[in-house]
Write a structure and sequence with these properties.
Blueprint lengths: L1 H20 L3 H6 L3 H4 L5 H11 L12
Length: 65
């Protein structure tokens, strides 16, 4: 039984990898990303807008290195 399970698992993995590489490349290009849908503002503008609307501001900073 073990001799049967491993080849079947490898075959399924190969099928999923090959099938996953095929896709509608045109559809991938035409879809908008999340950054295209967000109306980005500067930090100061964001604080002003949040203050006017009575909302909180979440700021996330990071540094590489």
């Amino acid at each position: 039984m073990k001799k049967f399970v491993i080849p079947v698992a490898v075959l399924l993995a190969v099928v999923f990898l090959v099938y996953g590489s095929y896709g509608d490349k045109e559809a991938d290009k035409s879809t908008a990303t999340a950054s295209d849908k967000i109306d980005w503002v500067t930090f100061d503008q964001g604080l002003k807008i949040a203050g006017e609307d009575g909302k909180y501001v979440l700021a996330y900073f990071w540094r590489n290195g």
